[in-house]
Amino acid sequence: TITGNFASVIHGLNANHLTDQVIQRSKRMILDTLGVGLLGTSTEICHKVIQYSKIYSSDISSTIWGHLDFRLPPLYAAFVNGVAVHSMDFDDTWHPATHPSGAVLPAVIALSEAFPQKKKISGLDLLLAFNVGIEVQGRLLRFSSEARNIPKRY
Prior knowledge:
2-methylcitrate dehydratase PrpD; mainly alpha
């Protein structure tokens, strides 16, 4: 099936698939996203999301960008950091219209921080996870008949 094929391709990806060009572009995308996200932490919407998220706590926590003294469960940290990135609307884009890094990077970083100390992932593992997330998003866009119509709607 299409879904089975898709899952096999994604499951089969490993660090050996990352070319030097992909690694360099990924690092640039990550730096851009972190920069936009840090700037986004000063927006009103980000402040509101942080205030809302303070009601959640967990033994496992991840960093809120720009707030080193405040941590949240990985799910909410990814949400807050994703809102920070998107609130500036300067994050990277893809055609048809989507912002891949703003959705993927906050989740990857939040999850990587949640790993126990003895199982921390390497930088190469983080790059692989980031690229798998980007690949999944790109393939889902290609599968979507709705995504093909986005440019005609605007």
